[in-house]
Write a structure and sequence with these properties.
This is Protein phosphatase 1 regulatory subunit pprA. The chain is mainly beta. The protein has a 15-stranded mixed sheet with strand order 1-2-3-4-5-6-7-8-9-10-11-12-13-14-15, covered by helices on one side. The radius of gyration is 24 Å and the shape is elongated.
Length: about 350
């Protein structure tokens, strides 16, 4: 799950950084210094009216203490810099900015979760693409959090998240997780991203409101465990070792199902998924197109995209034509798009 920021380069005629959008106003609120390759902020002015600071893609390794006086600050991005644990430590004592709602520390050199307990209204916290070994420290993060990103680290255990009762997005992809756990209190979770881990079985603790789940590139061999996730709209399970499609019949709100690159030999248990629009089955071992109309009966008219390439059945005569006959509203078969 990619956390997006909007890059822009604003400078005055001398090439010096300046406040974004409102720079001609007496009280600018946004300062965007994306991609200036700054090593320090000595030449930068910090109006007390600022509510957003973006230092993405610079060479910063130390915090400028003047940031700690910006009492109106709501969003701070230090993404793609050179901050290590020591360089970030002063932020834990800056009472004046305790109203911060969004803190982005993605793509730095952190080895642990920083102390951010001072921020009592934090909604978004991003420490992805660091060198963090453990989720220890998250228990001190405010329970107001709605989005948590810890992808591309070295985390081995899902822990210290059970107090995030308001959490809607949890991104833990590209870590070293083996077990899904401690999700039972995240009752409002809508998106769970766990791709590229080492998970062998699904344990979603009855997350009935979740809409998107990614478990791509793990070690699953079955699809069981999703039965209670009746609100699920998108399910990504590609690049696992799944042998049989079983356990999906209750997911009647599913729009996207990706089970590409598994070990499937047949299509099963999805005949009553009436909302299915995208079905990815490529790179499996499905031998024949016979019976596919019955297997996808519920979404026969709804389906717009199907991938079946790199299966034995894709070698059938008139393969694409047959699929177009089965699915009257199909718009794409594999890479072939129909007008």
């Amino acid at each position: 799950m990619e956390y997006q920021t909007q890059p822009s380069n604003h400078d005055d005629s001398s090439g010096n950084p300046m406040a974004d959008d409102d720079s001609c106003e007496p009280n600018p609120t946004v300062l965007d210094l994306t991609s200036y390759q700054l090593h320090d902020l000595d030449s930068v002015d910090f109006p007390l009216s600022l509510t957003e600071l973006d230092f993405t893609a610079n060479r910063l390794s130390k915090l400028d203490p003047r940031i700690g006086h910006l009492s109106n600050l709501k969003k701070l991005s230090l993404r793609q810099n050179l901050f290590d644990d020591a360089g970030l430590e002063p932020i834990s004592k800056w009472e004046a900015i305790s109203g911060l709602e969004e803190l982005v520390l993605r793509d730095n050199q952190l080895k642990k979760i920083p102390v951010v307990s001072i921020f009592k209204r934090l909604l978004v916290f991003d420490v992805s693409y660091n060198e963090i070994l453990s989720m220890n420290g998250l228990s001190k993060v405010a329970n107001t959090l709605k989005e948590l990103y810890v992808s591309k680290n070295e985390v081995t255990k899902m822990e210290e998240i059970d107090h995030f009762h308001e959490l809607q997005i949890l991104e833990l992809g590209s870590n070293r997780l083996r077990v899904m756990e401690n999700l039972q209190n995240l009752t409002f979770l809508q998106e769970l991203w766990l791709g590229q881990n080492r998970i062998r079985s699904v344990n979603l603790c009855g997350l009935k409101f979740i809409k998107k789940i990614s478990l791509q590139s793990n070690r699953l061999t079955t699809m069981t465990g999703f039965e209670e996730c009746v609100a699920l709209e998108e399910l990504y399970l590609s690049h696992n070792g799944i042998v049989t499609m079983k356990g999906l019949s209750t997911l009647v709100n599913l729009h996207v199902l990706d089970v590409a690159s598994n070990k499937l030999t047949a299509i099963n248990d999805i005949e009553n998924l009436t909302q299915l629009e995208d079905l990815w089955l490529n790179d499996n071992q499905i031998t024949s197109l016979e019976g596919i109309a019955e297997a996808v009966a519920g979404s026969k008219a709804k389906l717009t995209t199907i991938y079946l390439e790199h299966n034995p059945c894709a070698n059938s005569p008139n393969y694409a034509t047959t699929l177009r006959q089965i699915f009257p509203n199909i718009q794409q078969v594999d890479s072939q798009v129909f007008g």
